[in-house]
């Protein structure tokens, strides 16, 4: 009897190995989705450290926030994100720069390769910080007034093509496809995304901000 009991584990092991062989090679699990910026990114010294470690090109400029009006907290002049320069430097908060970095690496570059077959080499903007009210309600300050918003006009690619929001938004080809997907993809990174789908005030640009409200009209 003792010998019979000892053979049972061996039979079980053999059966398990046979079943594993029949099952075929295991498929690798899908990669996890990219991390996203959620809520208002935190400004302050650690935000600056994060930009430096990511090789973002910027200059630290004096803060102007006073708590009761226009001004930027943890202000920078941003030249380029990790892979993409801007057409000119833009004054923004460090928190917005962090969101733009995520947008570059997680949304724009993969999208450029997939839709355009060419790397994104420049982002054209119409401004970041400006002390003004909202287009929908001039009595309330825009997120631009805190350096937490940027208006994107166009995306330029390595092969020379430029996707312009004003001219190409409704195109049926790759330029329009890129713009519409770039707008929708921004909703996973920024708090508010306003595109030509929002209203006539945004017919020529994408408004991206990291303010306290959540709204996707991409």
UniProtKB/TrEMBL annotation:
InterPro entries in the record: Extensin-like_C (IPR009683)
Query: Is Signal one of the keywords UniProt gives this record?
Result: yes
Which keywords, in A-to-Z order, does the entry hold?
A: Signal
Signal peptide from the UniProt entry = 1-23
Q: Name one Pfam family in it.
A: Extensin-like_C
Ranges where the Extensin-like C-terminal domain occurs: 47-217
Q: What's this protein's name?
A: Extensin-like protein C-terminus
- What is the source species? Caenispirillum bisanense
Q: Taxonomic classification, please?
A: Bacteria, Pseudomonadati, Pseudomonadota, Alphaproteobacteria, Rhodospirillales
